[in-house]
Amino acid sequence: MTVCSVYWIRAAHHSDFMTEGYVGVARDASKRWKYGHFWSQKNNRHDNPKFSNAIAKHGWDNLVKEVLVIAPEDYCYDLESKIRSLGNVGWNLAVGGGKPPVTKFRGHDYVSPLKGIPRPTPWLVGRQGHAPSLEACIAGGKKAKGRKQTPEQIAKRVASRKATLAAQGRTR
Question: How far, in Å, CA of 70 to CA of 79, rounded?
Answer without folding.
Answer: 11
